[in-house]
Amino acid sequence: MDHYLFYLALLGYLLGTLGYLLHIVNRKVAIGKAATCATLAGFGAHTLSHVVRIYTLGRPPLGSLYESLSFFAWAIVLIYLITELRYQNRVIGAFVLPMVLLSALTAAALPRRIAELGPALQGMGLWIHVAFAILGNAAFALTFCTGLMYILQERQLKSRHPGKMHFRLPSLELLDDVGVKSLLFGFPLLTLALITGSIWAEHTRGSFLPLYGRETWSILSWLIFAGLLYARLSAGWRGRKAAILAIIGFCLVLFTLIGVSLMRGGPPL
To answer: Alpha carbon of 238 to those of 7, 46, 230, 232: distances in Å?
Structure first.
């Protein structure tokens, strides 16, 4: 049952992606509203798929790469819809929804079988750790998208002959504001993920800070975003430098979430 709802969510995200991309081309309000409605419908179906899977498994749907990527896509949509409501700007969706669709399609291509997890990979502490990590990474996805948009818009503004994209992208001030707020939201979640993960590791492995592959990359990601946050709040970093560092940090996040799991062939825990 949950996979049918997941496919409905995929359809909604596909229609939302196409709608947002079309909206950035012609800026018709009706197309933008249709894209939002399709995304909301996909989000609703996706939420129900998680509810059904929780009922079926008796645990949060975070125990496999398929489940984690699905939850990652869902969390990005949640954060984006809140951002759209707050800023009343749908152009950002043309950059965010393709990432959501790609994450969901990647999840759909992975095995959805329900694997038995060992005792060490169960418990509310572990699920809280994983949920914090994925929600923080979803916030950084928005930071990444606004950073990319900032660089594109800045290049257009510096060009002697700015193209049509200049008039269709949000202002640099808006992009910078969304970027810093998503960073302020995501960084505490990533910090809590590291703390709860360390407590879980101490309890199950006898080591407070085990430096395995995933843990090492997670710490590197945290250091990059910690440096970015410090630079923005204390050193006054804005604009291009902050955008580039946000892009680098999110690339590390993606490698930690997906790349390490694929290389070691285990669950994303």
So the answer is: 40, 35, 11, 6
Is 181 in contact with 142 (CB distance < 8 Å)? no
pLDDT in tens, the chain (269 residues): 788 999 999 999 999 999 999 998 888 889 999 999 999 999 999 999 999 988 887 878 777 888 889 999 999 999 999 999 999 999 999 999 999 999 999 999 887 765 555 555 556 777 888 899 999 999 999 999 999 999 988 888 777 666 666 567 888 999 999 999 999 999 999 999 888 888 876 666 655 555 555 667 778 888 888 988 888 887 677 778 888 888 998 988 888 777 555 555 555 55
Q: What is the CA radius of gyration of the chain?
A: 19
- The helix/strand/coil state of 265 is coil
Taking a C-beta distance cutoff of 8 angstroms, is the pair 15, 2 a contact? no
Locate the domains of the chain by residue range.
1-115, 123-269
Handedness of CA 259, 263, 267, 269 (dihedral sign): negative
Q: Helix or strand or coil: residue 95?
A: helix
**Residues 264, 175: Cα–Cα separation, whole Å:** 37
Claim: this prediction has a pTM higher than 0.90: no
Residue 141 burial (CB < 10 Å; 0-12/13-18/19+)?
buried
Angstrom distance (rounded) from CA 64 to CA 112: 8
